[in-house]
Amino acid sequence: MAYIDSILKESRVFYPSHEFSRNAHIKSMAEYSKIYKKSIEKPEAFWAEKAEQLEWFRKWDIVLRNDMGFFKWFEGGYLNACYNCLDRIIKSGKRDKIAFIWEPETGESEKYTYGQLLKEVCKFANALKKSGIKKGDVVEMYLPMIPELPISMLACARIGSIHSVVFAGFSSDALKDRVQDSKAELLITADGSFRNGKIIPLKDNADAALKDCPTIRKVIVVKRANNKVEMTNERDYWWHELIGSKDVSDVCEPESMHSEDSLFILYTSGTTGKSKGILHTQAGYLLFAYQTFKWIFDVKENDIYFCTADIGWITGHSYIVYGPLSNGATVVMYEGSPTFPKPDRFWRIIEKHKATIFYTAPTAIRALAKEGDDLPNNCNLNSLRLLGTVGEPINPEAWMWYYNVVGKKRCPIVDTWWQTETGGILITPLPGATPLKPGSAAKPFFGIVADVLREDGSKANANEGGYLVIKNPWPGMLRTIWNDPQRYRHTYFEKFGVYLTGDSAKIDEDGYFWIMGRIDDVIKVAGHRIGSAEVESSLVSHEAVAEAAVASFPHEIKGQAIYAFVVLKKNFKKSEELKEKLKQHVAQHVGPIAKPDKIQFADDLPKTRSGKIMRRILKAIAEGSKGYGNIMTLAEPSIVEALAKNRVA
Ligand code: WTA
Hints:
Blueprint: H1 2-8, H2 18-23, H3 29-41, H4 43-51, E1 62-67, E2 70-75, E3 78-79, H5 81-85, H6 87-94, E4 98-103, E5 110-113, H7 114-130, E6 138-142, H8 148-159, E7 162-165, H9 172-182, E8 186-190, E9 193-195, E10 198-200, H10 202-210, E11 218-222, E12 236-238, H11 239-244, E13 257-258, E14 262-268, E15 276-281, H12 283-296, E16 304-307, H13 314-326, E17 330-334, H14 345-353, E18 357-360, H15 362-369, H16 374-377, E19 386-390, H17 396-406, E20 413-416, E21 427-428, E22 443-444, E23 450-453, E24 466-470, E25 480-481, H18 485-493, E26 499-507, E27 513-518, E28 522-525, E29 528-531, H19 532-540, E30 545-555, E31 559-568, H20 576-589, E32 598-601, H21 615-623, H22 638-645
Helix pairs in contact: 3-4, 7-8, 9-10, 12-13, 15-17
The structure holds 5'-O-[(S)-ethoxy(hydroxy)phosphoryl]adenosine.
């Protein structure tokens, strides 16, 4: 992969300015090393001290316990995540500080102070209670990037119900699978969502999904797009009517939640076709989101923090909602896309709200860099002081453009490595301390012991690629997979007995981590996590397809894109038209983000004698490389040459 090669040859180093370091929470590598040492020698003392910053209804009895491979943090303690994000901040004198600035695709931006946000959250929390939702019930959200999304998450947290947000770009089938697995009782959606000037009919999608979701008793619909929708009697209710009713109070007592009660489920792709419901609990997750946000984004009282992620992904959960709010920060959230109406949307938003911290994904940086320097140069970006990236490896060229053109050589870049499962950032520079190497996520955060192992479990040498693992528990880690503890153990702990990330990486001679990408059958397309198996089972569900296998290939903007090998059933003819139909089929079945960029019709797939598809061969073909390795173990070695000859360029 060309850009992974370029990452690994990178040798430039960039230092934070003296001024940045002087004012930063963590000011030097010496300070980092000192705290890091303490944090891993005495992790329980370290995290207990940090946990004092939250407000507890009852203090914990024990910091950490390993319950046969399931980790428990702060048992015996009680708190409320919503209370810690709103009431605690208001009590510290910030009732009138702006919590959210919402920048919609059409219409005026809106601002919510912490005081206003608390009232909205309480009203909706009371509406949820009136709808029969209790502590421990699951509430599903299928919403665009509108304020009602964080409001409904915080309302759930307030009354102790478990939220499960499904990215609004997913199809109705994907929504159905997730609702069925979570057994949610209530769904919150909208009449429509805006993207690129078009309206996406979310409520229609939800209606289609709910035909097969008997657990859902009620649906609450936000009026966003004035889109005509069908409301089912006794099931569907308008958000504004529910909270507009006079007997809905704007005061709601927070539920006292045990540290290990569930906070939310977020589905993510794994290596099988069924997505995994990653479970996060109350105290450990909140503490980890709080502490990582504070130190990694080096947040100060006057910062305006703009994160471009969608709340449908973990980045939005931890670094639009829980991390920033628990720090009392001002967060900009936006609706729409980076390139509509013009590819200067981000730069305009930064200019308009004088954003000081900006957090986005490498795929967006690559797409925007391609538009040239004029768009960012024509906006006033002088308010920026810190930049961040997440979601996939950033190639040094994109890093340099971000640093030079967006950050004007003044702003450190935090390349933050983490996962849905980790709850928060695990490997990252600290902006006032860490010398930056473009393309490297630098070093482990406090309390994190990360390493790179060989297949046999031994430690890899410096600069030798291997499996990225985390050797110790941390407060923000997933607790289990919803309804599937066996899969949790198997996926993350079976191979080495320590947490397996699914990524490959190397550590250089300075102890810097270089993440190389997924080592399993998960593909990062434009930063979105797609399971090969999900795309394959969607292809196979089409009447024309007998067998399918997908691999990834490097893509200039998306980082990775999907290449599908498809064997047709006997009576179907290969045609460009059929390829297009199959792409649409996947878009409908999984979501537009999972659509293969290339489809190759094949007469057969390379399999071992025992019938296992040899994925590394397909990957090599998709990438246009001849490095298949040994093909003699195949049942039919000649297939490889035929496949390579007909490769879709
Ligand atoms: C990838 C996103 C390189 C990685 C927060 C990981 C990264 C997967 C980085 C998790 C980074 C995330 N550099 N790769 N800075 N950050 N990744 O669950 O492959 O959507 O395993 O969480 O994204 O994706 P997820």
